[in-house]
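User: What would this chain look like folded?
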Amino acid sequence: MTTRSGFVALIGTTNAGKSTLLNRMVGAKVSIVTHKVQTTRARIRGIAIEGAAQVVFVDTPGLFRPRRRLDRAMVAAAWGGAADADVIVLLVEAHRGVTEEVAQIVERLSEIAGGRQVALAINKIDRVRPEALLGLAEDLNARFPFAETFMISALKGSGVDRLRGWLADALPEGPWLYPEDQIADLPLRMIAAETTREKLTLRLHQELPYELTVETENWEERKDGSVRIDQVIYVKRDGHKGIVLGHRGETIKAVSRAAREEIAEFLGRKVHLFLQVKLRPNWLEEAERYSEMGLDFKDGA
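Assistant: Here's the prediction, encoded as structure tokens.
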């Protein structure tokens, strides 16, 4: 039997549904999902099997106009993920249509694609009428020669199977790149840290989620099969520590409980999670923090 394998980059603006689609394709949660924009920071790989093909999805940070070093490093990671992939999928939100940011991404696709197939996936199709979808598809295909157009709902799953099947056929022939039972190419330490960051992002409001980062400092396998995980939440301002902790520590307890339950479910075993909050005013300018996030510090220059 001929096997196929390769990388599929999911690109688009922030909140286009890339992480939701990745998790749907893989059948497990490997990328964090929140209602806030710019949640995904690193390139996260999720692995799906479709027939004789192994499809390695790369969930990239959203493409947006960068303002800070972290923003620039995230955007560079997104375009880098597209440039390294065998196939590219551009996700566009049906109800938002061709925004200025979408138009800029489509324009740059000509430079990045380099002869590779690029598919268009119009997401969140349940939010608009069918005639609006057709008009949007025509507009986007007039701007760039997409190999195929898909109407999907990453959240509800409609159209996703057809997209996955097409991608499997579009990949080059070759041996599988990962063991059959592996669903993510990401260290467990980072998955655990990202899970905690998701819970913080969902719990906290305004700009604070973008001012903090989470790192797994210690991972201890215990004799009873459980694991002890120690994590540090770095914040930029002293006042943020109190917000993260909450009144009588209620916020940090709720975050810890939610993160622990999800990490335990992902690992399939008991987890002991311990969180600390530390002040680190310049973490956004430290190369080590970027390495922990899977980003290149130099890209933010």
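The mean pLDDT is 87. If you want, I can go into more detail on any region.
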